[in-house]
Fold this protein.
Amino acid sequence: MILENYSAARHLGARLEMGTNDALCEERIGSRVDQVLSSLTPPVAYLPAAPTLTPWEAISGFQAMDTDERRAVRTQARQECRELTCWWLQLIHETPYPLLERMTLFWHNHFTSNADSVAWPQLMYRQNQLFRTHALGNFANLLQEIVFDPAMLRYLDGASNAVNSPNENFARELLELFTLGEGHYTERDIVEAARSLTGWQFDYKTGKAVFKVWRHDKAEKTFLGETGNFNSTDIINIILRQPRTAEFIAEKFWAGFINPEPPDPAIITQWARTFRESGYEITALLSAVVQSQPFWDGRNRGALIKSPVEFSIGLLRELKTEISDYEFLRKANLQLGQNLFYPPDVKGWRGGFSWISNTTLTRRHDLISKLTTEYGNGLTTAIPARMLLQQEPAVPSPKNLSNQQLDQLLAGLFARFTGTEAAITATATATCNIDVAALEQWLLPLPSLSRPDCHQPLSDLLFVLMKDPAYQLR
Amino acid sequence: MKRRQFLQGLGLMTLSSLAPDLVLANNVLTLAQNRRILVLVELKGANDGLNTLIPYTSTAYHAARPNLAIPTADVHRLNASVGLHPQLQPLLPAWQKGELAWLQGLGYSDPNRSHFESIEIWDSGEHDASERGDGWIAQCFSGYELGGVAVDTNLGPLYGETCGALSISDPTRFIRLSKKIDALQAASSNPALQHIINVQNQVNILADSLETYLQDIPAPQAPFPANPLGRSLNSVYSLIGTGLNIPAYKVTLSGFDTHVGQLHTHANLMQVLAENLAALRTNLLNLGMWNEVLVMTYSEFGRRLQENGNRGTDHGAASCHLVMGGKVRGGLYGEYPSLLDLDNRGDLVYNTDFRDLYASIKSDWWGQETGTANRLRFL
């Protein structure tokens, strides 16, 4: 399958990356879809630099601390959780591998844990790296490991699940939200799975999971029709043998990559078979998705609403905007309804239409204004602002770009759309020297509703296109 | 899967875009006298009814909850067998005035213990997923331009295909930011795009209307507590205070999924709930609008009688809820479920279908036909 034109290349990028890179779209015309997909997959060992967090040794004695010490450690942890969110936002903004971050976020929203309940940023970070490690790897391995991931053990009470005090919380969500989906297991299966999963604990001394044999229920269990002295590995293996598991994940890929409507059952069956037969290789599923008929169906272009992170970071990446204060971006995304590391509940962000309400739409428009025309908040949105103001930037950019350098950047970004370099910073033009159609094709997945006027300055045109309803779609 | 599941939870549905020829049954700007407003408070995560309205004389209660039973001496006794959690003390004035009713044994047959399925059952009033349609409030106000406002991200029972509903957080900020958005005349066959166009247009209409009406609302006499529920109810108070004809509001208090270490968490939640509802009552009394308002709590299910090994409780079934308001006939309604005769998972068995509660509100508060004679006579 070949990317035949700009629009096809744009569609693939909009679904797999963060923001639309105009130059890449042009470059990819004529390439094979599977080649582009593999070019987006990073080298196996790619793990970005870690955030600065308090070493675990300072927390390992938490249970023996007095009230004041505990308060101090917890206050620091809450602060570091916020910094961790900023760290990830920065990574998504700057990464050379946006697909990896997209899929890391996908698994964060699938195997949810919330930093408030987990309490320790060190554990949230480790879980995040677990998702990144397996994001484009093997789902079966990820599923086996999530069972004793320390953050998950704390979030869904797996650490409290023991033979004499069974706790069903993790077992229930494992079946309902992580693998099979409602209606494909019984209450009895939950009880039996919970019993089989007993024994894991969170060890404060090391900050790691430990398996305590004496806490494990060693009696016989019957789970999804199979009987035996099961442990957590057995339970996951039984789940992985259910065809329904691959279907459930395939359905989530439909919602993430095709459209928000109920999926086509025949396609799901097909994708699920491919996924299972590959031994749960995530790229095998992804490859099937991006080479399927519904992925390329014209009706599914621009059928997905951008999440707050896709919207805000996509915009920053598109305009190559620098930002020094990620705390500003964290708060903005919090108010748009997506605070990374704090999903609303175990079912995660619902996404789809729910991203856009009266309140969040007004906030998105407010953020467009802030990100494209305002200084302050550590933002250097000097690119459009330079065009808009025609004067020295009020605040120097964090990277200390000179006006000359900014102009070069602008020319690099917009040369394709303007006949002359002067058109980039012109305040208004008597003749049309901006290729509005090309600009529109870059920024919007569908024709604009706002009918931009090519006599407007380029900065105004950008503003009009980004406030077009279609800019909220990908 | 169901169209409802696909569309629900939207911040907004505009009736006019879906059925432009319908004659609207209400108009937001009607300043109505003697309004009949319902304020829904979702207790998200499943509130432990047993430690809310406490069967303090029951030996089974104390036996099943060695760590979690509220000591009898601390219970605010309502009668010889049940009483309130100590932190619900701020609700006692309403109880003493006869404006607070407790509805016992609420639930439904074949209870579902998934948070997400069960709340859909409560929201829609329909057990069978394939039959699930509009939210029960939306069904009551089919054809309304604005049936309800969720000061919340999830419309829940306000969601409906033929009833307008919207979600906003802080009305004042909403008006300020909405000035950056323009209305747009357009239609699209792309549902996502159409959704955004609808929202964008409604923002305009609504912001213009609200701006005029929100100007003269007196500041609350009793400040709402400085927590998320307090901020939500402050917004509800302002919107009710405008005199606008909006029949339903929804707010949420989260954190009730107390599988571990319940005692302290639940006590805090009880306190937050009670202080907030008491403040709402005081402030609406001050505006002379308390008789126009009915407050109701709900939750996906109750929690298990037997505490678990982690000083918490697991998902249960039947539970109790409260209604309060100037027109409410205070007291206890329904029967407290038996603590000895439990279902096969060890949960309380309901004796009052939650849809009887809905029918009571529908008929006795809103004067609508219900097709059932089953109701709780708290109005």
Observations:
- The longest strand of chain B covers residues 37-44.
- Confidence is low (pLDDT under 50) at residues 1-31 of chain B.
- Residues 262-287 of chain B form the longest helix (26 residues).
- Chain B touches chain A through 51 residues (CB under 8 Å).
